[in-house]
Amino acid sequence: MTTDVRAAHADPAPYRALAHAPQDRHIDVIDQRALPHEIVSLRIADAETAARAIRDMAIRGAPLIGAVGAYGLALALDHDASDAALARAHSALDATRPTAVNLRWALDRVRDRIVGLAAPMRAAAAWTEADAIAAEDVAINHAIGKHALAILRDIAQHRGGPVRVMTHCNAGALATCGWGTATAPIFLAHAEGMPVHVWVSETRPRLQGASLTAWELAQRGVPHTLVVDGAAGLLMARGEVDVVFVGADRVARNGDVCNKIGTYDKALAARDNGVPFYAAVPSPTIDWRASDGAGIPIEVRAADEILTVTGRDEHGRTTRVTIAPPSTPALNYAFDVTPARLVTGIVTERGVAQATHAALAALQGDRTAP
Ligand code: MRU
């Protein structure tokens, strides 16, 4: 991919989830745990810090996890480029978060690119590959945005007022290297003057909708309203949602979509109310080895994320409060699987496919899996 192509797809937003200058042997990311209150930059200059940033969700979102994982491998190779060190770093980074397949995809891509090289050549080649993954992600998301924009234009033609999009969690620029996936068509529509309004579901327990998606929409001037996760059904039943766009952490080859917990509920409500439901999915998010969603590993995070809420008080102090009896058992599944039958379409950088193996394989060309 040339520099010109990258520039053509550049996300005009004033913030970047991840930055790497070619001469640097570190990356800078936004520590997303501090948003929306503060923009805190976190420097990642070794593989252990990269792994911690992914595990503790300083950075998150499937494509960004993949890119940071790739840079993490490059950082490990800067330190020790032996086969043993490569295998150790690959498995340590891979173990940080289990559901987003982009992580394994990016780690494998960097490893496969450098494994045949002599040790002194490996680190530089890994940095180049990580840069390519990050740049391609921006172009992929822009292309997804263009394809999904056609869906919004179609709705706009039949509506008098703004196109009302519902999204869940954060599949925005903060979850990627630019544009976001589910948000890309929204940003493009807004930029071309189409009236849009976004229903942002808060996304318990970590509140990526409230703290990240709402922040991104505000940064770009896109009209939006925050609602509790449980409001989706009512809004759809009242005819106040025209389309649902969500991201994905892994899509099985039959079109089952694994995404943030609560996505399935939205798809059910959408189906019951005749609202189209699309998943915006970069190719690296399709797991051709997964025949259906049943085999996708679902991350279980600490119960503490459900039992407590962290926010800012009126004095600007970050405060953590308990919201349930301290001994209450809580089960924190981080993702769910929306069956393909509830998915109207899967938007990839190559176009829009029905959520079936045949349609996905036809769209993705040579990526047909058994
Ligand atoms: O737990 P998170 O915040 O990493 O979950 C993120 C999501 O579920 C996103 O929808 C998904 O990764 C797609 S991001 C383009």
What can you see in these coordinates?
The two termini are 30 Å apart. By secondary structure, the chain is of the alpha/beta class. α3 (62-79) runs antiparallel to α6 and α4 (83-94) runs antiparallel to α5. 40% of the residues lie in helices and 18% in strands. It is globular and about 60 Å long. Residues 1-5 have low confidence and may be disordered. The strands form five sheets. Strands 6-5-4-7-10-17-18 form a seven-stranded mixed beta sheet, with helices on both faces. It has a four-stranded mixed beta sheet with strand order 11-8-9-16, with helices on one face. Strands 1-2-3 form a three-stranded antiparallel beta sheet, covered by helices on one side. The chain has helices at 3-8, 47-55, 62-79, 83-94, 101-114, 119-158, 184-191, 208-219, 232-237, 263-272, 304-307, 357-364; strands spanning 18-19, 27-30, 41-44, 163-168, 196-201, 224-227, 243-246, 250-252, 257-260, 277-280, 286-287, 300-301, 308-312, 318-322, 332-333, 335-338, 345-348, 351-353. The chain folds into two domains: 7-137, translation initiation factor eif-2b, domain 1 (Four Helix Bundle (Hemerythrin (Met), subunit A), Up-down Bundle), CATH 1.20.120.420; 145-367, Rossmann fold. It is built from twelve helices and 18 strands.
